Amino acid sequence: QGLVTRRFIGQPIDRFFDIELDDLPLLMRGQPNGDRLLKAKSGLAVFASAIAPASGFRRVPSADVAKVRNPFKDLSFGDPAMERLQARAAKLAGRGIPILIQGETGSGKEYLARAIHDNGDAAGKFVAVNCAAIPEQLMESELFGYAPGAFTGANQKGKRGLIEEADGGTLFLDEIGDMPLALQSRLLRVLSENEVLPVGALKARPVHLRLLSASHRDLAELVALGQFRQDLYYRLNAVTLALPPLRARRDLPSMIDHLLLRIGRDNGHFYRLDASARAALLHHGWPGNIRELSNALRVAAALSESGVITMECLPDALCDDGSLLPAEPAGDLRKALDECGNNVSALARKLGVNRSTIHRRLKRLN
User: Fold this and answer.
1) N or C: which end of the chain has fewer CB within 10 A?
2) pTM of the shown model
3) Taking Cα atoms as reference points, which of 93, 112, 92 lies closest to residue 102?
4) Among 216, 244, 272, residue at a domain's last position
5) Which domain holds residue 182?
C-alpha cells in the first residue's frame, strides 16, 4: 500500500489483509511466537508474528470503531460476476421488491436470500421453506396453517402456518417450482390481497411480508409447459438474481481459505492444506457447489493430523476425481509410471492425486 509503518496504526486489519481481527488469536494458537503466512488484499504473501501487548494496556470501547457486519460479505471473494450480483442485491435489499433467485443446488440461494433480509427493512424474522422437501399432502397446512379441528388428526387448537410466521418479515420459498398448481393460486391471493386463509377457516387473517423465492429449475419453461402459473411467475419475478455455479467462479482459492478459517474458528483449531490436497480441491468440478465444498472441508478437517489436510483426509469422491488424471489410454499412464521408476507414490505426487486413485485407474485399465 506504500504506507509507512506508523500509518497502519489504528487502521482495521481487514483493510489490508484477508483476515479479521477476531481470527488472529486462532491464527497464532499453538506457536504464538512463530511466523504465520498472511495474504494481503493486493495478493502479496507476508509473514506475520504476534507481539505480546504492553502491560496495563486497557481497551476502551468506542462507538466510532464499532464494527457492523455486512450481510453480503461472505458472498464473494473476488469473483467479478459475484461482485456485480452482490452490489445489485445490496441495492434491492431495502426496496421490498419480490426477487427470484436462480442457481444450482448448493450454490448459496438461501444464504443470498438471508443476506437480502438482513440488509433490508423488515423487522420480523426470516422464514425459509423448501417446497421440494414437504410432502404435497402436507404443504397446504404447513404453509397456510389450519383452524381448530379442520381435519382428522388436526390439533384441536389449530396451527399457524409458515406464511403467518413470516408476518412482518421475509418468507423465502426455496424450490418454488415444485409447488403444486392448486397452492400456487392460493399463494397468489396472499400476495395480491395481503391475507391468508388457513385450512378450514372462514375468515382470512391479514399478513404483510416480503417474498423471496428460488429455484434451480427454469420457471419460464415450466410456465410454457403449463406447470407453473404465469400470473404468479410475473409477480415473483420482478427481478432475477442468478447465482453462478462454483465451477464458473474465479474466487475458489480464496473461498477455500475462508471456509477453512471459519471451520477452524468453530473447532478452535487452525488448518492448512498441503499442495496435493489443494490441487485436488481446485481441480474438482463441484457439482454440489458451495455446499459440497463446505462438507468436504469439514470432513477433511475432522480427519487431519495436527491441522495439516492431506489427500488422505479428503472424501473419496475428490481422491478419485478423473479430472486430476490424464485422459490418455493405459499405455500412456504406464509410461508415466515408468518415468517415475514404477513408484506409485512419486506419480501420485507428480499428478497431485492420492495413491489409491492411481491404483484404481490402473486396475480399471487392466
Assistant:
1) C
2) 0.70
3) 112
4) 244
5) 76-244
